[in-house]
Design brief:
Subcellular location: Cell membrane; Endoplasmic reticulum membrane; Lysosome membrane
Distance between the termini: 108 Å
Catalytic activity: 2',3'-cGAMP(out) = 2',3'-cGAMP(in); chloride(in) = chloride(out); taurine(out) = taurine(in); iodide(out) = iodide(in)
Main location: membrane
Largest sheet: 17 strands, mixed
Shape: rod-shaped
Strand content: 5-15%
Family: Belongs to the LRRC8 family.
Radius of gyration: 50 Å
Protein name: Volume-regulated anion channel subunit LRRC8E
Amino acid sequence: MIPVAEFKQFAEQQPAFKVLKPWWDVLAEYLTVAMLMIGVFGCTLQVTQDKIICLPSHEPRENLSEAPCQQLLPRGVSEHMGDLRELSGLRNNLDLQQYSFINQLCYETALHWYAKYFPYLVVIHTLIFMVCTSFWFKFPSTSSKIEHFISILGKCFDSPWTTRALSEVSGENHKNPAAARRAMVTMAAAAAGPGKAGEGEKEKVLAEPEKVVTEPPAVTLLDKKEGEQAKALFEKVKKFRMHVEEGDILYTMYIRQTVLKVCKFLAILVYNLVYVGKISFLVACRVETSEVTGYASFCCNHTKAHLFSKLAFCYISFVCVYGITCFYTLCWLFHRPLKEYSFRSVREETGMGDIPDVKNDFAFMLHLIDQYDSLYSKRFAVFLSEVSESRLKQLNLNHEWTTEKLRQKLQRNAWGRLELALCMLPGLPDTVFELSEVEALRLEAICDITFPPGLAQLVHLQELSLLHSPARLPFSLQIFLRDHLKVIRVKCEELREVPLWVFGLRGLEELHLEGLFPLDLARAATLESLRELKQLKVLSLQSNAGKVPASVTDVAGHLQRLSLHNDGARLLALNSLKKLVVLRELELVACGLERIPHAVFSLGALQELDLKDNHLRSIEEILSFQHCRKLVTLRLWHNQIAYVPEHVRKLRGLEQLYLSHNKLETLPTQLGMCSGLRLLDVSHNGLHSLPAELGLLQNLQHLALSYNALELLPDELFFCRKLRTLLLGYNQLSQLSPQVGALRALSRLELKGNRLEALPEELGNCGGLKKSGLLVEDTLYEGLPAEVRDRMEVE
């Protein structure tokens, strides 16, 4: 007996593959098992029992006009048996070997091939059906995709995140009706006005019992490990979708194997119907064996003919049912768009409107899964939704960035505000909004930020920095930021990426923007209107503008500080600066300026001017600064200025003058007439000497002469009794005048990088000078008298 289990390998599949087997494939599988059992049963009978039994015919040779046994065929079985009983008394004179020989010879020559090989044909055809059904599960190009898909599908189905996401959606759907009713009651009370507040409250109380209290499904809590696993699943689904949607090999293979089964069914049905009548109980056999047996005609009995005919009709019935399922499969394949799959019903049911439709093999597999259980595609769709992915990222962020961890990152920034700085995170943790003490929030390289309603909990927030972090702000939160935010800093690749809600914050006092204009718009330098910024006092713009943006004049009436950093691009049109009548501080850094702009001289309220890192060679226009009567700070550093004009004396109100990193070789004597000067920085130049008139600067407190070529200092310099900082490092000084002791207020003295051999002991008279404020080589310091060193080391 051949066990059916031996044939399992032809149709063996992974148990998980059952989700890709619709009902017709399952029915076909049972039919093939039944057909296989018929074939195996018939084969077993063929092997274990006699196939045919023959008896010689005693009719004379001249009377053999009819085939042997022919006279028995039209009559009933009882008559056959009667005839056989009549012949039972005849002796054939044949031994057992002769009978076996005749049986085998007649079986091979007289029996029809269909009657002989029927069970074997059934087994072969059934095995072919099995192979056709499961071929796409075994073919390398398709089986790899199927295995990967089944693996991902199972993980998505069992993932705790799937349950949580669907539960949250279900909870929202339950909450919406009640929330709508509450909103309607609130709006009605508000519309009633103060006089009808009591009636509104009464209506609210009466409305309460009508609310349907429905508890949303319990939302499972995800631990950190489960969150990471769900995150990895999202990445796998993305890559798998990208890979599978490129082709339709699964769809094509399934069609081909179905067409092959239909063709096979038609062939089997036709030839079985034609040849099933060839299975007969009595078989006439004529063989030339008279020399061996003495007989040439035999009447044979096909012992299994009756059973085989019944099995054949049963087999044909199964094949017909199998063929019907194949035709149904073809209709399903060609009458439905199986290469496209829409999640429309899932979107409507779950509320996840961003679930995308899929195509090609991905769509085909989802159609097959729907035939098994549509719940699979619904749970799988959770991992196709970007909203769901963002929620998961948010959950993982909240797990990673707890309130305690964020509180440890709080520190004071340069402006004295308590700042929380977050950099290169996949999103913004919700726990940030639990730190109500935060005064400044700095977000850098964080993509796609959407501020949640929890932002309103940061009641002390005054400063917000968005550095390469595009952010969306709901309209309801704009009022909150308008009332609380004082400073905002935005840095992006292009200025058109600056969020529009930034320009609607009416309470904003400082706006700092950094980004480039597109090359075709740089010359026009169009910026969003600033009219809404009624309290703006500081505007900083770092870009490549060809002119001062026209919208700057929108805030001309209250803007006090304007900073333009142009990154070396030449700023051509500056006439609009004249309208900034209350401007106190102006920075034009790296703007490619070769002369001091004339528009600057019209700013009567100007107090500080910074022209750093330009191409200034001559500053003859400095005389015009006498019109800026409030100017106290002038920064002309990091330019190419070769000399300072004599009429610098006109700037008597100037308190700070920065001329470092230029090409100065001398200073005019008239500089000593700037009697209000408190700070003078001429470091990093080529000065060889100093005019004695510098001693007239009796208010001078800070003098920077480092990195020059000074060989000697005029004694008059030490008449500046208020000098606190004197930087003389990296010059060519060979000695320091003992008159340095007259600088009693001196607290910082730099002498490194000179040619000094000794320090004057009069340094001990500088009561404010300590060891920490004296920057000099150790050998020179050790050369000072011990009492001087002791005095300096006393804090």
